[in-house]
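Re: weekly structure request thread

Next one in the queue (311 aa):
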Amino acid sequence: MDALSVLLQNVHLFETKYYRLNGTGNWSYSITRQDTILFYLVMSGSFCIDVGNGMRQAHTGDMIMIPNAHRHVSYALNHHGDAAESLDDLLPSCKSNTLEINGNGDPNSSLILIECKYDKEMIRPLLSVLPPILPEINDASDGRFEVIDVEIKLLTLEAERERMGKTAVINHWASIMMIECLRVYIESLPEATENWLKAMKDPFLTKALAAMHEDPSQSWTIHNLAEVAGMSRSSFAQRFKDTVGMPPLTYLIDYRLRLAARYLRLQQNSISRISELVGYASDSTFSQAFKRVYGVSPKAYRQQYQKRILA
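Done, posted below.
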C-alpha cells in the first residue's frame, strides 16, 4: 500500500452535513466552524471565497477543500462579502437540503457545500502543513480533477433524492474528495520545499513511512527502516530528518501515541491491549510515554474523554 493510503487509514470523517446553495444576485454568507473540513463543488456559475488571508475565485466544475479555516466568507463575483449574514442564520429556511440565498430569480451560482468533522489527533500533523484552500492555483490541470465529473454527477443525484444510505454515500464521497485534493496537492509540491508531505512522493522514504503506519507495533529500528527504504542507515536517517523535519523514530513515537489516543477514545480495547497494538513492551512504559505527551495517564485520558461525551 502506498504511503498516503496508509497515512489516511485512521483519518475518519464523520457527522457529514451537506447543502445545495443557490445564490441569486449579490448574495453572500459567512460560515464559522471549528474542527471541521469543508468542501465545495461548483455546480454552475462562479463565486468568490475569502478565508481571511486572500480571495479565491471558483468556477463551474471546480472542487475546493478548506482544511482548517475557522471562518470564511463566500459571495457572488463583483460583490463584497463585508456584510455577509451567517449561514447558520439562513439555514432554518433550507428545504430538502437546498437553500436559496438573497432574492428571487434564477441563481447565478449553484454550489454543493459539504462539512465533515474529523479526529483531531490523527489528522493534526496533516492539517498543520496544508494551505488554507486546496487545491492551490494551478495544482490541477485547467483547475479540474480527473474524478470531478463523476463526483458532481453522483453528489447531484444524492443531493436531489431521498434514498436509504444517503448520508453514508455523502460521507464516502467526502473522503474521496479529500484524497483527491491531497494527492493533487502533494504531486504539485516543488522539490525545494520544507513541507514534510514531500516524503509521500520520495521513492525511498515512502516505503519506510508506509511500513511504520501499517505495522506500528513492530520493533522498528533505524537499521530495519533503512532496509525497507533500500538505503544505508546513515543516508536514510539524514534524508528522513531533512524531509520530514524529525528523526524516523521520533516520527514513529508520535504516530504510535496519536494512534493510542484514538484507541482510547474508541474504548474498544483494554489499555494493556492498546499498549501492544502501538508497540510498547509493557503497560508501564506505554503509560510513561503517553503521559509525557498528553500530560495524563492513558486511564485518566480515557476517563476525561468519557466525561466530555456524557456532559
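The chain has two domains: 3-188, 202-310. The chain has a mean pLDDT of 85.
Next request, please.
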